[in-house]
Design goal:
The complex is a heterodimer of chains A (about 300) and B (about 280). Chain A is an alpha/beta fold. In chain A, about 45% of the residues lie in helices and about 15% in strands. In chain A, strands 5-4-6-3-7-8-9-10 form an eight-stranded mixed beta sheet, sandwiched between helices. Chain A has a two-stranded antiparallel ribbon with strand order 1-2. Chain A starts with a helix and ends with a helix. Chain B is of the alpha/beta class. In chain B, the strands form two sheets. Chain B has an eight-stranded mixed beta sheet with strand order 5-4-6-3-7-8-9-10, sandwiched between helices. Classes of the chains: A alpha/beta (about 300), B alpha/beta (about 280). Chains A and B meet through helix 2, helix 6 and helix 9 of A and helix 5 and helix 8 of B. The structure holds guanosine-5'-triphosphate (2 copies), potassium ion and magnesium ion (2 copies). One magnesium ion (MG) binds next to helix 4 of chain B. One guanosine-5'-triphosphate (GTP) sits at the interface of chains B and A.
Chain lengths: ~300, ~280
């Protein structure tokens, strides 16, 4: 294969000469290279198909100097289409003017929820905003202790009830306590769950209904593959998500699952996790992510 | 049903089914093209074609069947993988599996970095009723590994399983740490570690190939534990991984409970790959 999408497309358009328009015929090989590249980046199949439809439509009939790098025209269409689908940018936590803002993180097992709770608290701390973390993962061994370690590290209070087996109550009590303490933000750390686990998904909906968080964010592992469409869809249906955070983007994963998640949920992508440390959280930037997905 | 003509639409639909498993472009194209060569223009049943592909996948994975090497005295198993893939949980379940088959197991809490990782493994050791060696938070993981082996020898354990902190294969410095653990363990017991298990998350896509490559090169992986296969993700990326790196899957993780682990079975895996 080619080192970059650009190189691949250049070779696909090699035979084109003169002036003309981009047509389905002369773009076929180029479009196929784009499609493959997206699939290699882990964008889910139905999302890729949809995306290719948009790109073809936009490119068709474009007058190009065929002798002058028509591949660049296609790359630029693909890139800008990706940017527009990944946007718009909104990394605001939409804090309430009064009373505490409740933020709930949810997602599959091991996606990075607990760590991201800490990172959000750190972000708020930098702006002198008081946050409280609530340990509502009553499943995973030592999950509560994990959040306490993070809280101690950041000097941010952590609410937990080691004996309580009901996460809805823990969240309610945690919010009440945070209110009494004058916290401006309450961050709920929930247990990881599979989207097909009906019991645990129902539990999440109960927390959502009883505690009514202002912002519900889905935390997605940057290395996720084709299944991203299914899980994101299930979380969005149970919860009405308000945003997405993609983690583990400090490695070499291309992160195409983000396009799948955005496609099915339509909610803004808020942040990117880029490391295990508490300051490794960056506001989402569609341009950078589009380039990363296209490996260019 | 009456069967369908194998045309472009049929082949594209097949390709979509293959891609959905996370096997990746290359293998999906290869299988699609082979079906095209054999059946184009003929009328077949879609499900029959899938059945025949399932058979092929099964055969390919069966050739790689490789039971856990338990020949050491004690056997040392090192468990590695990216962040959150399921290492610690898989160790808990594997330890219980071995404990139940009559082995005396020692756990080593080699993740001294992540918040409460030691407590997490300690809870597993209590559930199982097996021994564990822990170090202080921030301690050198290689020294915890060394102490684990010493203790395992002293206690006459059959198996020592060592947990490691999650790391990304691109983090050169952290990857070198795995090499150090290997060397330290090998100094104490010849041939150790006997197994280096790479824990892959079934939800992972094509990056799992990079994981297999990176961890194999530095840590000398001997097999894979495919965790979280109880979800809707198929784990098809193990097909190209097997082909490129000859890494067999040894166990699959099927839940968060202590018994939710099974030895890899090519037949059931292949069938689940294309199930609806
Ligand atoms: N490299 C890297 N590691 C991360 C990032 N975010 C989280 N992690 C690591 O991923 C692993 C899992 O993170 P957790 O925060 O425990 O994930 P979780 O979603 O709370 O997991 P469960 O509660 O078990 O479902 C830990 O080793 C984290 O340190 C990131 O952005 N980059
Ligand atoms: N459903 C399901 N969940 C699993 C399975 N294996 C692990 N998990 C969950 O995945 C999450 C992460 O598992 P860990 O064992 O902590 O993963 P790890 O690789 O040790 O994580 P780090 O040490 O942070 O890198 C936990 O919530 C586990 O309960 C499995 O087979 N099925
Ligand atoms: K994951
Ligand atoms: Mg957690
Ligand atoms: Mg662990």
């Amino acid at each position: 294969m080619f080192d970059s999408l650009s190189e691949g497309l250049q070779s696909a358009f090699k035979s084109l000469r003169g002036k003309g328009k981009l047509t389905e015929g002369n773009m076929r090989d180029g479009l196929e290279i784009v499609r493959k590249s997206l699939l290699e980046a882990d964008v889910s199949y139905p999302v890729v198909q949809d995306f290719m439809g948009h790109v073809t439509e936009r490119a068709l009939g474009k007058r190009v100097l065929l002798s002058l790098r028509p591949h660049e025209e296609l790359v630029s269409i693909v890139h800008s289409e990706l940017v527009s689908l990944l946007g718009p940018v909104d990394s605001s936590l939409h804090l309430r003017k009064e009373g505490p803002t409740i933020i709930m993180l949810c997602g599959l097992q091991g996606s990075g929820k607990t760590t991201t709770c800490g990172k959000l608290a750190q972000l708020l701390k930098e702006e002198n905003i008081k946050a409280t973390l609530v340990a509502a993962d009553l499943q995973r061994p030592a999950a509560i202790e994990q959040l306490h370690v993070i809280g101690r590290q950041l000097d941010v209070p952590v609410y937990s009830e080691p004996q309580n087996k009901n996460p809805v109550e823990v969240c309610q009590n945690g919010v009440a306590k945070a209110k009494a303490d004058g916290a401006r933000v309450v961050i709920l750390d929930t247990a990881g769950r599979l989207a097909i686990d009906e019991e645990l998904m129902a539990e999440l909906s109960r927390i959502d209904k009883k505690v009514a968080p202002d912002q519900v964010y889905l935390v997605v592992d940057g290395m996720t593959g084709q299944d991203a469409v299914n899980s994101a869809d299930a979380f969005n249906k149970s919860l009405e998500l308000d945003g997405v955070i993609m983690t583990k983007l400090d490695g070499d994963a291309r992160g195409g699952a983000l396009l799948s998640v955005k496609h099915v949920t339509g909610v803004p992508i808020k942040f990117m996790g880029t490391g295990e440390h508490m300051d490794a959280l960056e506001p989402f930037r569609p341009e950078g992510m589009a380039g990363r997905i296209l490996q260019m | 049903s009456e069967g369908r003509l194998v045309d472009e639409e049929f082949l594209e639909q097949l390709f979509a089914r293959l891609i959905r498993t996370d096997m990746g472009n290359g293998p999906a194209e290869e299988i699609r093209d082979e079906i095209a060569t054999r059946f184009r223009g003929r009328v077949v049943h879609f499900e029959e074609v899938l059945d025949s592909i399932t058979q092929q996948v099964q055969t390919m994975l069966e050739q790689q069947a490789a039971p856990l090497n338990l020949s050491g005295k004690p056997t040392v198993i090192l468990v590695v993988g990216v962040n959150g893939s399921g290492k610690t949980t898989s160790i808990g379940k594997l330890a219980y599996f071995l404990h139940n088959s009559g082995k005396k197991v020692m756990l080593g809490a080699g993740d001294t970095f992540r918040a409460a990782a030691v407590q997490q493994l300690t809870i597993w050791s209590e559930r199982i009723g097996c021994d564990i060696v822990t170090g202080a938070s921030g301690a050198d993981p290689a020294s915890v590994a060394f102490q684990t082996i010493e203790k395992a020898i002293e206690m006459q354990s059959d198996v020592a399983i060592i947990d490691t902190a999650g790391r990304l294969q691109t983090q050169t410095k952290l990857m070198q740490e795995l090499d150090k653990i290997r060397r330290v363990v090998g100094k104490k017991i010849e041939d150790a570690p006997h197994e280096v298990l790479l824990v892959l998350d079934s939800t992972a896509g094509q990056n799992a190939l990079s994981q297999a490559k990176g961890f194999s090169e530095v840590a000398g992986c001997t097999g894979i534990v495919l965790a979280k296969l109880d979800g809707s993700a198929r784990g098809g990326v193990i097909l190209p991984i097997r082909k490129q790196f000859q890494l067999p899957v040894k166990f699959v993780g099927l839940g968060e409970g202590i018994e939710d682990i099974a030895e890899f079975d090519a037949k059931s895996f292949a069938h689940a790959l294309f199930a609806d």
